[in-house]
């Protein structure tokens, strides 16, 4: 079986420190790929879901990999010379003929940035040893697209230059200590985002579940209670459709049952909302204006629905903007 992926905590700035390596942060789906004897292939999502049937081109390309191997990396789709996260979302649930059609229309690449197994378990080795083994794998197997080797550097100037890739959809940088082993589920890496965005859970919407107009956002506090953090601006058509495909009606005992929501900061006008199961993660663009309770004072802009993230992976209430 494939392990849980190692995770990253937020970095305050994009400076690459001595003793660390920097990699570009890709705008795609985190995934682990494994191949065993007999040609069995598994593609595991960050949250543990099985993506094997959704990406038949990656499964077919796994024939170029040796047996008993596990890679960590990012599934990406390029469209018009830009990373197209939305195409990955559209492909996520497709299987059989529909998946094959999507693979032909929006082919995925797997950007490998770590080698977790090759004959033996490599997770206990330092990053720099795993990296050398990963580079040797690409050379010895002469791997070609859809396999892509993620760049890595210890040069601060090179890492800073990668921040200029934001025009094609690159998100920022990931930092990894050279002597660090791979610890599943641990936030031992660091990530820096080029844009000021963050995540929250969707706990309610205005409009209907089939056509949501705005979304009400929340985060769990340290005690596990879902706290209200703010509301989005009016959703555009793409965001509305993406939410409509994922929203589920709130079940009895929803943490916001009986709550009222105002039309705006300082307003007494109440809005009619529909509670939804707080399991959908939204990435939002935010500013730094907070009220006394730590909520976003101004409506935030929903950038996209993050079906690749689990509720447990978003920041806690009050932890960051």
UniProtKB/TrEMBL annotation:
One example GO MF annotation:
ligase activity
Which Pfam families does the entry mention?
A: DNA_ligase_A_M
Entry-linked InterPro entries: Adenylation_LigC-like, ATP-dep_DNA_ligase, DNA_ligase_ATP-dep_cent, NA-bd_OB-fold, OBF_LigC-like
Q: Give the ATP-dependent DNA ligase family profile domain ranges.
A: 101-225
Provide the reaction this enzyme catalyses: ATP + (deoxyribonucleotide)n-3'-hydroxyl + 5'-phospho-(deoxyribonucleotide)m = (deoxyribonucleotide)n+m + AMP + diphosphate
Sorted alphabetically, which keywords does the UniProt record give? Ligase
Does the keyword Ligase feature in the UniProt annotation? yes
List, alphabetically, the CDD domains matched.
Answer: Adenylation_DNA_ligase_LigC, OBF_DNA_ligase_LigC
The cross-references to Gene3D superfamilies, in alphabetical order and at most eight, read: DNA ligase/mRNA capping enzyme, Nucleic acid-binding proteins
PROSITE patterns (UniProt xref):
DNA_LIGASE_A3
PANTHER family assigned to the protein according to its UniProt record, in alphabetical order: DNA LIGASE 1, DNA LIGASE 1/3 FAMILY MEMBER
Q: What family name appears in the similarity comment?
A: Belongs to the ATP-dependent DNA ligase family.
Which named protein is this? ATP-dependent DNA ligase
Q: Please tell me the species this chain comes from.
A: Streptomyces doebereineriae
